[in-house]
Amino acid sequence: MTRESSVTARYISLVICACGVFGYVPTLLSWSSSNFGGHTKKAVGIAFVISVGQCGSVIGGQIYRQDD
């Protein structure tokens, strides 16, 4: 898509992309929690998965600076 395309087409593309990107999170969390035994290991495993997933936000803020 380009900037010359319609706003509606860009919005629909964004919604479809968001569904694809964020749709794996419940599956990943349920898979990781079912592979650990005990409540403490499950809690630490889920926290680790979420922490690793948030590293992209920290790195993205450093790579794509406002000055650029």
UniProtKB/TrEMBL annotation:
What residue ranges are annotated as transmembrane?
Answer: 12-31, 43-64
The Gene Ontology terms for molecular function here are:
transmembrane transporter activity
Q: Name one GO cellular component term.
A: membrane
Entry-linked InterPro entries: MFS_trans_sf (IPR036259)
UniProt membrane topology term: Multi-pass membrane protein
Subcellular location(s) per record: Membrane
Residue ranges of coiled coil: none
Q: Where is the signal peptide?
A: none
Q: What is its main location?
A: membrane
Instruction: Please provide the record's keywords in A-Z order.
Output: Membrane, Transmembrane, Transmembrane helix, Transport
Which PANTHER family does the UniProt record give?
PERMEASE-RELATED, TRANSPORTER, PUTATIVE (AFU_ORTHOLOGUE AFUA_6G08340)-RELATED
What name does the UniProt record give this protein?
Major facilitator superfamily (MFS) profile domain-containing protein
Q: Which organism is it from?
A: Lunasporangiospora selenospora
